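pls design
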């Protein structure tokens, strides 16, 4: 061992942990139990994901019922004739649902869409129920009191109690602010009801996105339909890549006539600008289509590593989103909107983490870091969606070519932390639910009932007593983030600290600061202790002060 480099020693250490996690030290009968559990978990995870991907929940809505929805929402929509009226076929996907909930002026439409979205895939509930029970059994076989105790042992949090304390503290601080924000939204809806001469029945979950948009547009003079005209595909992709070429010292080239799995998919080569070293490939698959993965994610297709002969295997990743039903129509580009740009930047954070990582072993490549550190690069780039300097780099009107006006730029920045209490409390709820089901010693707890109870008590949800079950489409609870959903909040706190400490003011445009970020945070992948990386980049241990300050706490 004394002749091994630090990364080699870490490989041996991780391999030994992996052997322990696989039950190598257990008696044969228990090893067989563990193997049986792992096989069944693999089946449950696949079934859960397949159920979400193959879900075809659809509503048929008239133009009147969709009043207020932007006109480009109807582009490419199928229509059906029923009872003498024309209805649009609206698939209940995350992207389509978000548009209707933000813009539809009729509460009945928002209600129908929200309930349809929140009651999909009911057969996934027993799958999650079984997975929770099996993971507890697996942890017990390995000597742990819960699945969370097992998974968190090697992460920054170390123990579920640390996560629970953090979440309880955040809930206590955020709840008063969230209640004030909900009161503001309730006032807006009450005013609308009074003006329309209809009874005010209350503020419900399907009202939140709509009235938050209304409040932000009124206060900051920022209209979503106007903003999206400055984020047209494919031009905005090119400008975003150009910006990161400058900031991260790269050259990004689109490949002509690539071999891809669908005509709408693009392929890019990424090179180091200074050394001209090839770094990796990035596939970009942005548009919805039948049978496709329905969320937004970055998939590691090939890891980078050093070959035995001294040459390098270069990474390849796929950036996948579901922004629109169709690729651009002739002479009419897809207008992504600010929320979609934010999602794109988030996933690009994962892309660059994978492409710019240079580890000896695939075990540590790119995003193969402790789960509570994996969202740090993605949320760092996501934050640029509100940065004035970055917005001026990438936003240009799709017809006139004019840069985005300063009033829109400043309005977007000012609106960023509006309703932060409601937004963060949603993340607290999901993280609290996730850690609750996986830190419990009761393998028979009712995952559906607990979800509803915690949604109402923590997130202050109001579904008008309709039995929804949003957990049945949240893949994170089933795989990858099981007992680690808190990573989003953890990463958000670390990101806020980095932005306030290293990227404040003109440093956001500093190639030197971005070079340090690339070399200290991205390049090592998971081959170094993440806390040591953060201390080196920040000059001190990280804290959550910047996050709390950003939301007024």
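designed seq:
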């Amino acid at each position: 061992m004394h002749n091994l480099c630090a990364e080699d020693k870490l490989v041996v250490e991780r391999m030994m942990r992996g052997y322990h996690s696989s039950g190598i030290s257990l008696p044969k009968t228990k090893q067989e139990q563990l193997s049986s559990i792992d096989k069944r978990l693999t089946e449950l995870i696949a079934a859960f994901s397949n159920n979400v991907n193959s879900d075809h929940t659809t509503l048929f809505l008239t133009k009147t019922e969709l009043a207020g929805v932007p006109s480009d929402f109807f582009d490419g929509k199928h229509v059906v004739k029923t009872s003498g009226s024309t209805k649009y076929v609206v698939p209940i996907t995350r992207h389509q649902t978000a548009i209707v909930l933000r813009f539809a002026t009729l509460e009945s439409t928002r209600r129908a869409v929200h309930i349809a979205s929140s009651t999909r895939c009911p057969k996934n509930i027993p799958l999650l129920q079984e997975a929770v029970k099996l993971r507890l059994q697996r942890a017990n076989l390995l000597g742990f009191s819960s699945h969370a105790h097992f998974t968190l042992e090697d992460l920054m949090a170390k123990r579920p109690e640390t996560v629970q304390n953090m979440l309880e503290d955040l809930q206590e601080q955020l709840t008063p602010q969230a209640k004030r924000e909900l009161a503001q939204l309730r006032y807006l809806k009450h005013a609308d009801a009074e003006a329309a001469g209809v009874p005010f029945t209350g503020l419900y979950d399907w009202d939140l996105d709509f009235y938050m948009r209304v409040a932000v547009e009124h206060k900051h003079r920022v209209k979503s339909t106007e903003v999206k005209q400055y984020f047209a595909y494919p031009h905005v992709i090119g400008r975003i890549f150009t910006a990161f070429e400058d900031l991260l010292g790269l050259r990004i080239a689109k490949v002509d006539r690539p071999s891809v799995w669908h005509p709408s998919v693009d392929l890019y080569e990424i090179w180091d600008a200074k050394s001209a070293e090839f770094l990796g490939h990035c596939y970009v698959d942005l548009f919805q289509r039948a049978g496709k993965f329905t969320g937004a994610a970055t998939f590691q297709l090939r890891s980078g590593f050093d070959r035995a002969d001294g040459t390098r295997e270069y990474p390849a990743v796929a950036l996948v989103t579901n922004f629109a039903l169709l690729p651009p129509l002739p002479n009419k580009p897809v207008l992504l909107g600010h929320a979609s740009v934010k999602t794109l930047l988030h996933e690009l954070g994962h892309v660059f983490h994978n492409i710019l990582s240079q580890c000896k072993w695939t075990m540590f490549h790119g995003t193969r870091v402790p789960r509570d550190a994996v969202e740090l690069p993605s949320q760092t780039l996501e934050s640029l969606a509100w940065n004035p300097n970055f917005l001026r780099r990438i936003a240009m009107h799709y017809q006139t070519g004019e840069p985005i006006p300063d009033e829109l730029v400043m309005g977007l920045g000012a609106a960023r932390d509006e309703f932060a209490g409601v937004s963060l409390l949603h993340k607290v709820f999901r993280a609290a639910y996730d850690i609750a089901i996986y830190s419990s010693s009761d393998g028979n707890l009712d995952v559906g009932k607990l979800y509803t109870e915690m949604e109402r008590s923590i997130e202050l949800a109001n579904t008008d007593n309709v039995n929804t079950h949003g957990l049945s489409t949240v893949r994170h609870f089933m795989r990858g983030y099981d007992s680690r959903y808190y990573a989003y909040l953890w990463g958000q706190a670390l990101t806020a600290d980095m932005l306030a400490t290293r990227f404040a003011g003109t440093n956001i445009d500093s190639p030197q600061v971005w070079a340090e970020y690339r070399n200290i945070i991205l390049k090592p992948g998971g081959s170094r202790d993440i806390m040591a990386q953060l201390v080196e980049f920040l000059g001190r241990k990280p804290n959550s002060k910047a996050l709390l300050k950003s939301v007024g706490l």
